Amino acid sequence: MSLNPPDYAPNPHVAYCKIWINGTEITTIGERPQRLMGFSYAMIGNTGGNRVNFTLFDEKWVELEQLLATANDMMVDFQFGYTTGRMSEKYTAKIFSYKPTFLINGMQLLLEGISPGFAETNKDKKSQDRQQPRNFPGCMGKDEADIHEIVEFIAKENDWDTDIEECEPVYNNDDLNKSGKVKMHFTQPAGQRDIQFIMEQLSPWAQSKKNKDTDYKVFFEDPKNGSKSKLHFHPPKLKNLGKDTYVFMQDKMSEVIQFTPEIVDAINLKLGGGVSGANVIDQQTGEYESIFSCNTNTPEKTILGGQFVAASDPDKEKYSTTIIEPWRDKTMAYISTRNRYQQMFNSRIAGELIILGNPKLQLHETCQVYVVLPDGKFHYTSGIYYKMSCVHELNGGRFTTTIALIRSGHEKIQSAVGVGEVISMEVGPPAPAE
Q1: How many CB atoms lie within 10 A of CB 266?
Q2: 383 shares a domain with 245
Q3: Is residue 179 included in any domain, yes or no?
Q4: Which residues contact 61 (CB under 8 A, 6 or more apart)?
């Protein structure tokens, strides 16, 4: 895709970041940038909060430090982009540390911030001071709660906005006095932080009721334009397939600066390739049974990719591996094989894409990456990738965005196809297996 000057403004238009403390803008006078020496904003998108760093220069030595000391809850607002062209939304971050460096002509101040919601969970006195384990749904006044209901309850308790996908009920049969399916009971240990409980004890068991996806992501989205912190609890969202397209070729100017694919087939083989298995021992009969997780869509899963559909028939797969330790609970055995298989599923081709800074970039979507060889054909690492995280960096008026990508079973671009054919083709996940 060729450059679009209104979006990617060349010099003398520069990248910059506006920062507000208690409503006072500290990095521009009129429209002229001042004080900002460096900026980075890491949108994590998984297991945590977004991180932001500001490097500022204060020629009056302590003016910024004193202003920061008066900030409500150490909160700052920021917006980044170009002096002309696109700008990001206005975000809010909570400053958790600052480091002054005294120079002859002033002070350099490094501020480090994090998503407000995640920052609050790191010093969550309410949960840390809880003296007794918390039972769900004991605190909710209903029968055994499903995982998404527990997460919703905790989010409401902490006044977070949410993006939560409904989960399948989880059953176990640990109680030998009961027969049939028994819903699993979740308990939050005394003193355990709420976010830690969600990440460590709920997320591994979560499976989407809508499409059976696993690998639930847990992270905070920074407040935008005065909104609340938003907790995300859902699998990767594969919506808007092919919305963003990045083309890298020798004789065409584009926003792509660099693309570095990481081929990790060796990891895939080490993990076992196409099947994950575990042994389970029946507590009542003492008999052993094997539990498997694999993918029904493509026989040679490790090579071809394809939409993930969990299955229990390993016969059509190329490789297999077995977790040696026997489980005493069938549900736990299945969860362990499924999560291990998910690692294999995600361990094919990762990549890092560096582009001219795009402050409007969205995570949780897929994009098309085309590496066009001199003969007009595509390199085999071209394809549809999932955007896992990104880092926006401003330095000396230069703005770049580095995107972490993974090809997580999406449709693969054939390297022998011409440019015109591929760009005009219909893209999307393959149809589910019959």
Answers
A1: 9
A2: yes
A3: yes
A4: 102, 106, 107
Whether residues 336 and 372 fall in one domain: no
What is the value of pTM for the model shown? 0.74
| DSSP secondary structure code for residue 66 in this structure | H
Pick the closest to residue 220 from 209, 212, 211, 228 (CA basis): 228
Proportion of the chain above pLDDT 90, given as a percent:
23
Q: Give the number of domains in the chain.
A: 4
Residues 174 and 156 placed together within one structural domain of the fold: yes
| 117 close to 220: Cβ distance less than 8 angstroms | yes
Q: Domain range for residue 73? A: 15-114
CB 137 within 8 A of CB 242: no
Query: In 3D, which of 46, 51, 389 has the Cα closest to residue 233?
Result: 46
What is the spatial distance between Cα 243 and Cα 241, in angstroms, rounded to a whole number? 6
Q: Which helix (H) or strand (E) holds 11?
A: none
User: How many residues are recorded in the chain?
Assistant: 434
Which of 83, 114, 145 finishes a domain? 114
Pair (92, 181) in one structural domain: no
Q: List, as one string, the DSSP characters of 297-336.
A: S-SSHHHH-----EES--TT-S--EEEEEEES-HHHHHHH
Type of residue found at 222: D
Could you tell me the two tokens for 252? 């065409």
What are the tokens at 352? 């890092």
Residues 270 and 258 in one domain: no
pLDDT tens string 343-375: 665 555 678 999 999 999 988 788 888 888 888
**pLDDT of 399-419, one tens digit each?**
999 999 877 443 444 443 333
